[in-house]
Amino acid sequence: MTDEFLILASDGLWKAVENQAAVDLVREVKDPKVAAKQLVDYAIQLNSKDDISCVGGSIPLISWSTEF
C-alpha cells in the first residue's frame, strides 16, 4: 500500500473527525481545496468547538530535492 495524500489539520478537526472517517470522506476527491473544505464542513457539522484549519495535497505532487 502506498500513501495517496496528506491531510494537515488543526486539532479542531481531529477532535471531531476520526482519522479513517477523514480518509473515507476525501479519498475520491481530486481537488485538495475541495477536500479540505469538505473536511472543515464535516467537523462543523459534528459541532467542533475549536478552531478548524485544514490543508491537503496529493502525495505524487510532493517532490523532495536532495540538492542543497
Brief rundown of the structure:
Helices cover 38% and strands 15% of the residues. It has helices spanning 11-14, 19-26, 32-45; strands at residues 5-9, 54-58. A two-stranded antiparallel sheet has the order 1-2.
Task: Characterise the protein shown here.
There is one protein chain. The chain contains 3 helices and 2 strands, in the order E-H-H-H-E. It is α+β, with helices and mostly antiparallel strands and 68 residues long. It has one domain (5-61). Strands 1-2 form a two-stranded antiparallel sheet. It is globular. It starts with a strand and ends in a 10-residue tail after the last strand. The model is unreliable at 62-68 (pLDDT under 50).
List keywords for this structure.
two-stranded antiparallel sheet, 15% strand, 68 residues, disordered C terminus, 38% helix
> What percent of the residues sit in helical stretches (DSSP H or I)?
25-40%
Instruction: Give the N-to-C terminal Cα separation.
Output: 31 Å
Q: Which residue ranges are poorly predicted, with pLDDT under 50 across at least 5 consecutive positions?
A: 62-68
| Distinct helical segment count | 3
Number of E-type strands: 2
On the 0-100 scale, what is the average pLDDT?
Answer: 84
Oligomer: single chain
Main β-sheet, in a few words?
Answer: 2 strands, antiparallel
- How many independent structural domains? 1
Strand order of the largest sheet: 1-2
